[in-house]
Amino acid sequence: MLLEKIKTPGLSHLSYMIGSGGKAAVIDPRRDCECYVEMARAEGLEITHIFETHRNEDLVSGAPILKAMTGARVLHGPNPGGEVVYAETAREGDEFAIGQLKISVLETPGHTDDHLAFALHDTAYPDGPVGVFTGDALFVGDVGRTDFYPDRKREVAGLLFDSLQKILALGDHIILYPAHGAGSVCGSGMAEREFSTLGHERANNPRLRFDSRDAFIDFKVEENHYQPPYFRLMERLNLEGGSAAPRIMRPRRLSLSELGDINIDHLVDVREPLAFASGHLPGSMNLPVGMISAFAGWFIREGESLALVASDEDQLAAAMTHLVRIALDTIEGGYVGVVPAAAQGKAMQTIPMIGTGEVEHRLASSGEDWTLLDVRDADERAQAAIEGSQHIYVGQLNERYRDLDPAKRYTLMCASGMRATVAAGWLASRGFDKLDVYLGSMGAWKAQHG
């Protein structure tokens, strides 16, 4: 008998494979799905079922691709907002045998209208399920977001409350298998650990401890979430069925001259922020590998072409992998070696870093030609903000950079300086050249001011 968790870094996506009696099922597979086939074959299993908890907004589903590879049935919930062309509809009470294991379906709308949870049974022990795959309804330490239906805010928050009660009614001993862990854009309060039980969540998850259904709804409708533009692309692809990931998850290697000759929409430097700030190719933006999943979908649109700049080949491959998983994969090639480019006489741009003392000085003395621009999210800013700063969330600079004046000076800040460098890189790629970054940002300010 097999139960394996497959974690996708960056997206913090969790998929699962279960197997028994020569059969296997996959829950919420990712786009690059050869790993499931390899795992099943290594265990002598045939993948016969693929279960989707919902139409994902943050990644391309691998279900249609895995179906084509294995012939497995794909099961998806009702009311997906369109036809999921590659799936059958599963409904409350449906049951599916996977050898000695059994999956029973719970309809759990709220996060999305089509959301399902899947209770896992071991038929050798008939007294109820042993685990539950909760998708984006219930996480370790958090619950799903309910902002995808803005005209029905209170209704869908109430639906999620009811769905959570249905899940919790399975029993405190039930093991929880969510679709995301900490770092996902699908929740802001997830615990760092990825193991829990329903009983532990009932006692400790702050989102499950409201006094009433109305109190839960009131809290959910006041939550602040951001929806990057690529969510719409994911929703469409996860109805139509996305294409298979490229067989080679490594971009074509470009020379410096080839990089200068190609016609692309974005030059994306995937090195760490301080390396980018110290010197980068003119016109490039900064999306560090570890931040691609969170921010690429704000700045890169469907079909836009890009080239990558990295420190080494492994960094190029990791960046491409993250981009492929969100279908932003029109990648013309990759270049390694900013320092060698500088040694060949290639002009470089830099983004200066400044400290707390300089920020204090500018706040006290600068006129209207300088702005301290805070790019943290609204919840962070509500907790603490520097008086005199202005706020635009980093992702929303994808459009709101047009509200800024390139002739003026801007200091970018966030919690530490990481997102601020991403924001500065984007502005630099749009023609802003009077930029610097507050190194340490809010962390440094609090250390100085308490």
What does this structure look like?
The protein has helices spanning 34-42, 63-70, 153-168, 198-204, 213-222, 230-240, 256-261, 273-278, 292-299, 313-324, 338-343, 356-365, 378-383, 397-400, 418-429, 441-449; strands spanning 2-8, 13-20, 23-27, 46-51, 73-76, 88-89, 95-98, 101-107, 116-122, 131-135, 175-178, 266-269, 284-286, 306-310, 331-336, 353-354, 370-374, 390-391, 409-413, 435-438. The protein has 450 residues and is of the alpha/beta class. It folds into three domains: 2-240, 4-Layer Sandwich (Metallo-beta-lactamase, Chain A), CATH 3.60.15; 256-343, Rhodanese-like domain (Oxidized Rhodanese, domain 1, 3-Layer(aba) Sandwich); 353-449, Rhodanese-like domain (Oxidized Rhodanese, domain 1). Strand 14 (306-310), helix 10 and strand 15 form a beta-alpha-beta unit. Helix 3 crosses helix 5. It is globular and about 70 Å long. The model has no long low-confidence stretch (mean pLDDT 95).
Q: What's the count of strands?
A: 20
Largest sheet geometry = 6 strands, mixed
CATH topology of the largest domain: Metallo-beta-lactamase, Chain A
First and last CA, distance: 54 Å
CATH architecture of the largest domain: 4-Layer Sandwich
Q: Describe the oligomeric state of these chains in a short phrase.
A: single chain
Shape: globular
Task: Give the amount of beta strand, in percent.
Answer: 15-25%
